[in-house]
């Protein structure tokens, strides 16, 4: 749960009310701020529990802040890798493959809200790959 103080909020990896999983892969997403909040961006946590990958077309601007492990984004111009404390920035329209070779955790920040931007795009079918994690 978030700690609130007027316009200032704090979140932890335990803050998401719901975690989403991609198919049977060990890829999990948990929003802490999304379209249901009175904010203009989405913020959340992602966990990749081992060597995993998923192709995606980004329909929003996104910053990925790696907190553990190593995260790789394969883009049209080759791979970009980041470790703890490093950031990868993606522009709307990027066709990528998110990938990890080890357990990895990161924070994502998107504008506009990633779910709504994807739902309203020709890439909406990508969302069907995710289900509530048990």
From TrEMBL:
Tell me where the signal peptide lies.
none
Query: Where, by residue number, does the polypeptide cross the bilayer?
Result: none
- Name of the protein in its database record: Cupin
Species classification = Bacteria, Bacillati, Actinomycetota, Actinomycetes, Streptosporangiales
The record ties this protein, via InterPro entries, to: EutQ, RmlC-like_jellyroll, RmlC_Cupin_sf
One Pfam family here: EutQ
Gene3D superfamilies attached here? Jelly Rolls
């Amino acid at each position: 749960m978030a700690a609130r103080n007027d316009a200032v909020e704090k979140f932890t990896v335990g803050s998401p009310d719901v975690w989403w999983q991609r198919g049977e892969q060990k890829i999990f997403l948990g929003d802490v701020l999304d379209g249901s909040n009175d904010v203009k961006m989405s913020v959340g946590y992602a966990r990749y529990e081992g060597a995993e990958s998923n192709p995606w077309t980004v329909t929003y601007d996104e910053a990925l802040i790696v907190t553990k492990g190593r995260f790789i984004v394969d883009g049209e111009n080759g791979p970009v890798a980041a470790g703890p404390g490093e950031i990868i920035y993606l522009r709307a329209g990027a066709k990528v493959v998110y990938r990890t070779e080890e357990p990895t955790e990161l924070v994502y920040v998107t504008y506009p809200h990633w779910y709504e931007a994807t739902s309203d795009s020709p890439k909406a079918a990508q969302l069907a790959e995710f289900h509530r994690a048990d």
